Amino acid sequence: MKNLNHIPRYTFDGWGALALVAGFIPSILIAGILSVIAMEQGIKIDELPLFTVITTVIMWLGAIMTFDFFICRKQTGMPIRFHLKMSGLKITLLSLPLMIGTMLISEFFISLLPTTGKFWGDWYQKYEQMMEFATSTPWAMAFLGIIIAPIFEEIVFRGIIMKGLTNKGVHPWKAIIFSALLFGIIHGNPWQFLGASIIGLVLGYIYWQSETLLLPILLHAFNNALVICLFYITGKENFSDIFQLSPIILLFIGIMLAVIGGWGMRKINYRRKDITS
């Protein structure tokens, strides 16, 4: 049994949600102030990649620090901490086919969403424009996608929300689903909502099974790194286009990989009654 007495058992509820939302406000204010100053100098600061990186970091830090100060410390008398030790070799190896399989499954279901028509077409066009801007600067895309997003998003959605719910007595699967749906919602469009929600379910499951936040962070980074690298190398976004395989075949491969990884993780009995990280 791990000695995790140094890990505070905070809970997540409406007040916790309010603290996270309130923590985002400083980044919005700072971004607004910097934009006004830059506009007076004739600079379109919102088009600078560094501006996006800075405001993103401030946003996540603000949310985490606000939850820590107003919720975690008041509930436990301790600063927020997470179990970040490396999991066992077996569960780490099994998490890879589970993650890769989930990526293939996710792509298949995303491909079923419409991208044309008055409503969907306009929305998808805006999504495409957003992705073009995001990929226009490789270093910023890589830094945000491989480092910033995995660390801060896993801390908030798995480390704070999911962990806080299980500490409150919510069943792990309910906490996993709730945090995954919120994870999808923040991405702001149907295509990323569906993909992020599916990935979020698996990251939550892996967190539950491994009892460490480090593994979901690394797998989140792996997911983003693989997608980003393949895009810049091939210029294509979908695995079916990259590997010239039918989406149905990739779905079947994805299901097989996910079953092997997920079943294997349960088989080696890493499950606990609640997350102790």
Please explain how this structure is put together:
The chain has 277 residues and is an all-alpha fold. It folds into two domains: 1-81, no CATH class; 84-267, no CATH class. It has helices spanning 14-40, 49-76, 89-111, 118-135, 138-167, 172-185, 190-210, 214-234, 239-243, 247-267. α5 (138-167) runs antiparallel to α8. The protein is globular, with a radius of gyration of 20 Å. Residues 270-277 have low confidence and may be disordered.
What descriptors fit this protein?
mainly alpha; globular; disordered C terminus
Give the terminus-to-terminus CA distance.
12 Å
Can you write the helix and strand succession as a string? HHHHHHHHHH
Radius of gyration: 20 Å
- What is the number of domains? 2
Q: How many β-strands, per DSSP? A: 0
Oligomer, anyone? single chain
Q: Helix/strand/pairing class, anyone?
A: mainly alpha
Strand content: under 5%
Biggest sheet character: none
Transmembrane segments: 12-38, 50-71, 91-113, 133-157, 169-186, 192-208, 213-233, 245-265
Organism: Bergeyella zoohelcum
Protein name: Exosortase E/protease, VPEID-CTERM system
GO molecular function: endopeptidase activity
Question: What's the topology here?
Answer:
Layout (H helix, E strand, L loop, with lengths): L13 H27 L8 H28 L12 H23 L6 H18 L2 H30 L4 H14 L4 H21 L3 H21 L4 H5 L3 H21 L10
Helix pairs in contact: 1-2, 2-5, 3-7, 3-10, 5-6, 5-8, 6-7, 7-8
Pfam families: Rce1-like
Keywords: Hydrolase, Membrane, Protease, Transmembrane, Transmembrane helix
Protein name: Exosortase E/protease, VPEID-CTERM system
